[in-house]
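A reminder from the course coordinator: this example appears on the midterm review sheet, so study it carefully.

Given structure:
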């Protein structure tokens, strides 16, 4: 049912999913209102009731907390619950191990007082220090790094199978993807962005976040392909392509890496993204939203992958193979 108010994305009595903390819950929209009563085209708020919760939990929420009640978003909700459960088990295990180690250390009298004093003065593990023993500015302790919000990106079985086939073709069969790709990463990202924008209101926070995420994935791909995403057998091909891109001559004039390589290599980035994101300084809320956006991108990839895959891998020839050895 379309919203009665032209600016509202959700209608009264509409079934939806709503974020509460880091999880998505089924909810019903009880009422809607513009944030600014004089601006009906601006952002809207929604009074929601969470299914199975007491009415005291009913709350006015901004639009970015709501998601349409689709199969895709319901799967996202299930994945978030599974990841939260896994994180809690992991945290409980670490706490238990730390407590056990501390208990053993407290009960041990094998260390003399001088040894214990020396241990107390030693730098904590994971803290980088200079020659004078002082902490180096800009570094962080291991425990601070481990407390950073983690992200787990669910990969559908269909994409996992493609990744395995890709690995076998390159590393075992000694074949490579023909380049430039007929369906490069930039084409895929443009198609995905166009598809998602049809489901979002122009000028909204969702619209802006989509553009930021697509631009970020594009940048990550351009920067990380040559450093992280290639197999050894693909290196000579990369050196040739990279050189031609830098020279800006011929068919690769003005091109980016994402204009040359295809979705086969983008799938490898999806696998590497959790580790790359772990090295950023995003807070848990930003990580949660990024996880949601990446889930949608991966789901779109899974549904449309036949359109973007290379028709066949090619044998590069004996001279190429000799250059790898």
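Designed residues:
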């Amino acid at each position: 049912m379309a919203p009665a108010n032209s600016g509202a994305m959700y209608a009264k009595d509409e079934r939806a999913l709503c974020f509460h903390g880091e999880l998505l819950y089924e909810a019903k929209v009880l009422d809607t209102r513009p944030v600014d009563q004089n601006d009906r085209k601006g952002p809207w708020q929604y009074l929601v009731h969470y299914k199975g919760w007491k009415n005291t939990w009913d709350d006015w929420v901004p639009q970015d907390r709501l998601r349409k009640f689709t199969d895709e978003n319901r799967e996202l909700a299930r994945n978030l619950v599974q990841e939260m459960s896994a994180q809690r088990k992991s945290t409980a295990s670490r706490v238990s191990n730390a407590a056990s180690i501390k208990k053993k250390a407290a009960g041990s009298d094998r260390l003399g007082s001088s040894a214990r004093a020396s241990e107390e003065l030693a730098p904590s593990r994971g803290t980088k220090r200079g020659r004078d023993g002082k902490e180096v500015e800009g570094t962080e302790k291991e425990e601070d790094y481990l407390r950073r919000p983690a992200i787990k990106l669910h990969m559908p079985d269909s994409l996992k199978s493609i990744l395995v086939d890709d690995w076998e073709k390159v590393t075992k069969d000694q074949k490579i993807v023909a380049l430039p790709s007929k369906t490069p990463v930039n084409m895929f990202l443009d198609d995905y962005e166009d598809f998602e924008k049809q489901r979002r209101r122009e000028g909204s926070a969702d619209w802006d976040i989509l553009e930021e995420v697509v631009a970020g994935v594009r940048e990550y791909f351009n920067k990380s392909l040559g450093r992280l995403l290639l197999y050894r057998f693909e290196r000579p091909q990369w050196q040739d392509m990279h050189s031609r891109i830098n020279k800006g001559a011929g068919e690769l004039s003005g091109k980016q890496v994402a204009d040359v390589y295809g979705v086969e290599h983008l799938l490898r980035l999806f696998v590497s993204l959790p580790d790359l994101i772990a090295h950023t300084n995003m807070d848990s809320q930003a990580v949660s939203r990024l996880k949601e956006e990446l889930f949608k991108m991966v789901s779109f990839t899974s549904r449309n992958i036949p359109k973007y895959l290379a028709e066949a891998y090619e044998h590069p020839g004996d001279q190429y193979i000799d250059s790898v050895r």
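Residues 125 and 175 are 44 Å apart (CA to CA). The chain has a mean pLDDT of 82.
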